[in-house]
Amino acid sequence: MAESGSAAGETPSPVPRKRRRLSWIWLVPIVAALGGLLLVLQVWLSAGPTAVIHFQTAEGLEAGKTQVRYKELAIGLVERVALNPERSGVDVTVRLEKDAGGLLQEGTVFWVVRPRLTLSGVSGLSTLLSGSYIGLDPAGRRGKDAVRAKSQAEFTGLEVPPEVAQDRAGKRFTLHAQDLGSLDIGSPVYYRRIAVGQVVGYRLSKDGQGVDVQVFVDAPNDAYVNAGTRFWNASGVDFSVDARGLRMRSQSLLSVIVGGVAFDTQDQRNPQAAAADASFAIYPSEEAARAQPNGVPLRIRMRFDQSVRGLVVGAPIDAYGVTIGQVEAIDLDFDRTAQQFFALVSATLYPERMGGETFNDIKEYAGSDLEHPSGKLLAALVKRGTRAQLRIGNLLTGQLYVAMVEFPNAKPVEFKMEDEPFIPTVPNNLDQLQQQLSNILTKLDRVPFDAIGNELGGALRAASSLVRRMDTQLAPEAQALLRQANRSLASVGGLLAPDSVLPQNADSALRELARAARSLRELSDYLQANPEALLKGRAPDSPVRR
Prior knowledge:
The chain is an alpha/beta fold and 546 residues long. The protein is built from eleven helices and 25 strands.
């Protein structure tokens, strides 16, 4: 019983449960999650870079719709458009495709393509139907020689598209002008009347005294621009009136409307093409551009004791028909000795315009003084009678120019070579004529016209009285005298009638005179043959032979 009791008090050992296995149903979300992660990873790895572009306005831009295009190929999309923190513009976030990420580099420019009407034509018409898009123009060269620039993720967009793509073959040049004139972005650049480029920009010069105009000349025509090239303003129509008549010059009808720039090579001694961004000056006209090289300038002054109305700054200085300088300034000065005002004209001469050999002769004649190589020559010319004279260059406008002419009978003057020497002047023929007219008017002013008028009035009154007396007294007597003269003429006519006695008597007298003349002629002939008859008398007649 003890054994049975002990057996009854023992606790039974627990039976172990079977472990539950993971259900196959959980594999579905796990596989989906892994696929989603892989898809996200693939999208993240295949997504292109983003960039922020700053524009002044969001006109035509819409997130999720506006594309980014390069060479009319869509390479990106606008993701976000928002105001910038300063509220001065908008920040546009764009995402490019992965293979276009290399375009986000320094020098790349962006702009919004919209319909535009410019001097160079109409652009962006396709956006009327498809909507605006962002254009892109990367910097640097293209092709195998391309150089990888530094990457950039923030850009400032242009408000107007660039006139010339950065990969366009050609060169840019800077032209300096006094003012912009009729030039504008898109104005053509001509070479031998063929459009070879265009104006791509302009800005004020650093000193504010002029305008720097940026032009682009397409290849291969950019090779014609070298150190001897000269540019001139080809805008509008150039009219000129000279000894050859009226002339009109223009590059093309487009240049008349929108302006333009033309160039040509004046000096062929350096045919090497100019480097990109080289600087040139813009001459006001083709004639000025084709003038002879300036060379070493010589400043001169001229005093004119006469009116210089019609003479302007830039007027030519002519010597034997060749322009050797121009007027730089016209001022008014006072001569305290003579107590009168006079015109002081400052000008610049260019001796090299006389020709290279002539200029070398001038330098040799002047000695070693290269600063004023024309000193001795000018002194000799002034001594020979060379003077400056104002002359009319255009009868229609009355414009004047300065002529350097030799006057052999000019009064001798003392010439002194200095930094700005004085060239003696003589008045022109018009001023001499005006002086003569002035002298005549002065003499006429001294004539006592009032006294002459009074005397003339008295003479006219006396003549009137005389006429009345002749009409009342002399006229009847004159009529009687005329009647008496008429009767006398009638009597004379009766005497001269053919059947009157006077003509018959005159006829008889004439016949008698004729016979007397024949007798005298016979006597003269007889005396010439027998001169002794004057002493002895007439010889007896010779007997008649039978």
